From TrEMBL:
Residue sites binding substrate per the record: 8-10, 24, 43-48, 51, 77, 115-119, 146
Protein known as: Beta-phosphoglucomutase
GO biological process, alphabetically ordered: carbohydrate metabolic process
Cofactor details (free text): Binds 2 magnesium ions per subunit.
Source organism per UniProt: Leuconostoc falkenbergense
Documented EC number(s): 5.4.2.6
Family the entry assigns: Belongs to the HAD-like hydrolase superfamily. CbbY/CbbZ/Gph/YieH family.
Record SUPFAM superfamilies: HAD-like
Amino acid sequence: EIKGFTFDLDGVITDTAKFHEQAWHDLATSLNVPWSAELGRQLKGISRMDSLNMILAEGGHENDYTDDEKAAFAAQKNQHYVALIQALTPADILPGMTEFLAEIKREGYFASVASASKNAPTILKKLGIMADFVGIVDPATLSHGKPDPEIFTKAGEILKLQPTQIIGLEDASAGVQAIKGAGQTALGIGTAAKDAQPDIWFAETKEISLANIAKQMNA
Ligand code: BG6
Ligand code: MG
């Protein structure tokens, strides 16, 4: 029986995925790395340093920069990203998610956040929904990023529930793989998530409700 939910943030609760993509695209261009929609999809859910390494590899630059130079590139991307998220307000919560968070609270489910982003607490405060979650996994404590299951396992421990009692929500292929690896039920949103064959799938957040989830679980 499902008793809780582990939420990815970027691309699930709010559309910050587009700001990450914009900031990485700009950095890639400045490093002469060609951008593609496919690269954009692959970077979803991936930690800051892993994302930079994937971009450098895409351009054949994996051995061209020192660790200090790479840290500077990552800081440059984050500065751009942080500037883009300053204007977020509760109006930037994706369609249906305010209602879904209210519905699960009303029905007695527990929720935690499994975001790879070090900016997650800032974003949750700006959206005004910090209090909807029992807790947030601190990505600085992780040994492995998504698709490793570690972050969802920790988000489940915060809920004090067994994996079989949890549904994880993700928009990224790497994230769906991580949820499945943690033994939780994977709910994927959008085309990038579909690649990893989630247990439950919705094209858009506005379709997510307890009733619509139940329909797919019993299908
Ligand atoms: C994930 C995003 O939530 O967080 C990725 O999907 C991002 O695109 C990752 O790279 C790390 O975020 P941050 O804010 O710590 O650089
Ligand atoms: Mg995401």
